User: Fold Carbohydrate-binding protein from Rhizobium herbae.
Amino acid sequence: MDNRPAHVFATTTDESRALFFNPTAAFRPSAYWFWHAIPDAETCRRQLADFKAQGFGTILIQARIAFPRHLYMSEAFIVAYRTAIGIAGELGLKTGIYDDYNWISGHAGGRTVEGRDDLRERHLFWATTEERRGAISGIQPPFVQSMGPDIMGWQYENGAVLWGGWAIEAALLHDADDVDTSRIVEDVTDRVALTGCDAVSCSYAFDGEVPAGRKLTVFVSARSASSRLINYLMPAAAQRFIAVGIEPIVAALGGLVHDPLGFVFYDQPAAGFYRWDQISGNLGNSLLFVDELRNRVENATEASFPRALISLLYGEGETTLRLRAKFYETYSTLMNEAFFGTLRAWADERGLVLTGHEILPHVGSWSLNGGFTSIDPRVAPATDFFGIDRFRHESAVDANNFTAQLAPKLGDSVARSNGRSRCVVETYASALRAPVRAAGQWELTLQTMRAQAIRLYCLGARQFLWHGVYQTDGSHTNTTPFLNPRFDFGPGINFEPWWPYHHLFAEETARISAFIEPATPHAPVAILYPLHTAWAEGPRHAHADHTGAWCEHLLALGCDFMLISEDDIGLADIRDGRLSTCSGLTFDAVVLPSATVMQSSATLDKLVGLRASGGAVWCSGAMPSVLCDGPMPVLGNWASVHLADRPDVVSIVALLETLPKRGPLLSTLTGEKPWQWIGREPDGSWRVVLFNDGPEPASCDLHLSTGFDCEFWHPATGGITNEAGLSSLNILIEPQMVWCMRLLPIDGAGGRGLTISEFASPRGPVAVLAKRWTFQAGASEATAPISVASGWEGQGFPDFSGTGIYRNRISIETAGRWVLELPRVETAAAVSLDGIEIGRRGWSPYRFELGHLAAGSYDLEIAVSNTAANRYYAGTPYQGETLDASGLLAAPRLIALEADQTGTTSC
Assistant:
């Protein structure tokens, strides 16, 4: 993270080149530094120097659940914190405040609510019956419970969910199947009273009878007596959080504030997602409550508070959907202002950057609610992502595991909507082969991590935020998740055997991010973020899946897109059949993904104008039927295309064929279609990133409508080479290879086509080195014969995680220029010849230039580092059915690129 606005990172080509060669901290990987105890100065210096050496630019200290909670924010903690930040500054690292203990910003390890019970989370619960008596009981947070008793103990005092301060807030009689008109909803709040309450339940009674065919719905509020979470609707709670959880650190840092410490990062602020025995209706979790919410809702909706509340549960008519959307708009605005607004005002006063991310129900998926499917995001700081982002100085999102997903694209979209660009992406690993998600993925390879980072940059990330680097790797005697650091969302990448190769990943990926920075994405399609539909219909509605389908298919087809809000559309201009937004993005088509409820007629007017001017408006699923600012007008056939069902690849291909062809044109001739990012600079030049994350080579043809000069920006080295006067470019992209190219249009058609590849074809002998290998496991002095056809885990080293040394004496009978190729490696390798290191690789292709070798014998040494999985999972429930492959899995090959004479090579 960087204190400067994004648009001043690089303003000229010279600045862009310098930034590419030596990226600043804003582009380099950042990480949470997990503290499990208070470190001494020597530990701080040793670990921070290690992080710096491995290419990190930014570090955030995070006290995890293994850290004794009573020491959090203690004098000793703050002294160590200041020591660490001072050392980081000396080393040239940037730092920020991770603003809480463990996570869920706002509770400050429970300090916010200590002695302030009025700030604890307060919720609305409800029950619907056909009886005059009822109860609220069995209130539990299943989302938190699923993570085990230690997380329950972190969030709740003594691990128990207790309640108090019960109060009737609303009660209504309504028809069993219809609440869409006020005529059939009767407010009976003053006729319902509590009849009994304790710490886990309450009961109530209605002073009349519930008529046949009618139901009684009662809303009851209660404040948690044991939760350490705050009421995010109260500015006073946010102010108290700042006072006890952030300000003491800032005050202690003195002159270290602003540089090296320049920002505050919040993480998933959210109250408990409670369910109970009587829950029913459209809303899937309890709702935060303060008295002020009543007046706000009544002013915004012009309906009584009880009438507005019943709309949250039942009904699908126009009146109910409009009322429901307006309620959540009011609720979200109050929450955003109370929490994020308070933090932003404080950060502005302190001259600090505010960043962080809210709950993302789409984390790890493309569907808007395909991640945290057990929660209703409308009750949390979530859903209104464009609105929340207005309170940040810099956008940040969360990503789960190592696949392409919506989060970075939505993060970039909200940033551009709010006058910025790109985002920070926190990436964490959850277990794939064990039911305990916190067991993490110690089997993670640097190749997998690198591929994900490049995908994130193509999707809108500027900085990769790793979760995390560890102070300690925990204990081998304890398999308890969370409390044992090694099973607290591992891996701690600095305890992976491949960690010494991390700097290679850091340098290359930072340069890819810096390369992208000066250009604006070339995104022909805009997808409306259907906010009011999400509020009115709920997370299970088709809009969530339709949005995900459009996003996933468009990217798979090589068509970039951005998500835009209704405000973006309303403020946009229409020029030559294109929608031009205030963010500088221009779109040929706008997509409405099963959007049934919309905020404003101004949005529809603009879309009608776009269609009339020759632009494209594509709809899928249900069409808009409800406007929040008035009746739905009769628009006629205003959409270019309406797909009745969920969009599929075939239908989207047909739609894309109707759009004008602009910018660089890419076609894939063979193999997997590579990842691509295309952006345009203010001077008209194009920047293109191509990345092949598939298993087979891909061949791509690249054309412009004119001739072009091409600059090849090499992220592995920071170098730049040129080819002038091209008419076309054919690139062979090997698996895991990435190309960064800057295309400068020239007058005319260009003079020549160019075909390029990263690797020259063999021109001489190829020798398979399959025999006479010996192996040494780590620091052991013992050596043993080994096969290079399979991993060491099946050859007597089942739980060895570290660096294994393969040795062989090879004979070169043909002098010439030679390359060593390792066809299959798990997972990072360094090659030495006659004791001199030749090169290091953390991902494929594992090729090593040996240079010109004279005929003769040479001592070849291959040091391979695997993952920590076989060591850390040994003897635990997280082991899985098979051991993780380690070492060389296929015989190395010697390849002659230039041979002085015909001959053979052997080992």
Remarks:
- The domain at 766-906 is CATH 2.60.120.260 (Jelly Rolls).
- The chain is about 25% helix and 30% strand.
- The mean pLDDT is 94.
- Residues 318-350 form the longest helix (33 residues).
